[in-house]
Amino acid sequence: MGDPRDVLDRDAPGPDLTMAYGEHPDQVVDVWLPVGPSGPSPLVIFVHGGFWRAKYDRRHTRPLSVDLARRGYAVAAIEYRRTGQPGGGWPGTFDDVAAALDATPRLVAAATGGEQAGAAMTGGSEARPVIVAGHSAGGHLALWAAVRHRLPETAPWRLTGPPPYAGVLALAPVADLAAAHRQRLGSDAAGDLLGGGPDDVPDRYAATDPSALPPPAAPTTLVHGALDDRVPPDHSRDYTARKAARLVEIPDAEHFAVIDPLSAAWPTVLKALADLTSGSGVRSVPDPPT
Question: Which site in 62, 127, 179, 209 is 20 to 30 Å from 193, CA atoms measured?
Fold first, then answer.
C-alpha cells in the first residue's frame, strides 16, 4: 500500500492560466479550463489545505484540478498568504481568501473571453454554477467563505447578501477552530492562524469559526474519511449534526484520499460534487431573523 501523502508531490500538468487578484506573489489563481463541449460548465473554486501554513501551497491540488477539468469542470485553485510568511495568518489569510473568491469568477470570464462565469455574479439565465470547495484547512475556509453575509457586523469580510455559490464542498474540513485549538491539530495551527486560543482572542474565533457561525445559505456537503488521523471525523459529524449540511463519510478513507483522483474514495467525492452542481444537494437555508 502506497503512502497516502503521495498526492502532495505527484506530478501533474500545470494550469492553463495563472491570474493575479492582488500584488503579492501569492495573490494568484491557477485555472484549468474544461475539456469537452463549450457552454456554461460549472466553475469549482478550490481552496487548498495544509493547516494554513506557508509550507503547503496550491501545487498539490494539480492532480485533482486536472481530473476535474477532464470531466468538464472549470477549476480555479486559489493561493493566499499563510502563517509563517509576511502577511499570513490573522487577518491576511482571510483578506486574501475573501478577495480571491470575489475576483475569481470575473477573472475567469475575462481571461476566457466569455461571460458565463461573470453571469453567476448577477444571476444571468446562462450563469455558470460556482462551487466553492476546499480540503482540510481549505475546507474550513470554504465553509467560512460561504457564510460571509452572516459574519459579525464588525467583520471586514462581511457581505451584504449571500455569495453566489451553487454549493459548498468541504473535504475533511477543520470545521471547528476552537476544537482544533484544544486538540492542538497541526501543532496548534488554529492558534497560530488566529494569534491565540478562543479565550485569548474570542472575537477572532467568532468571526472565523464555522462551528460558531450560522449555516451557509448554499447547499453544503462535507466529505470525510472515517480513518482520518489528521482532522478527526468528529469535526464533520458535529458540524453536520448542528447545521443544515450533508455528511458523506467514507469508511476506509484517510485524510488525503478525498483529494486523490487515484484513490478508492474519489468517485464518492465526484458524486458529491455532481449532486451539488445538479442542484440535488441540501436545500438552501433562509437567513435567521434579525
Answer: 62
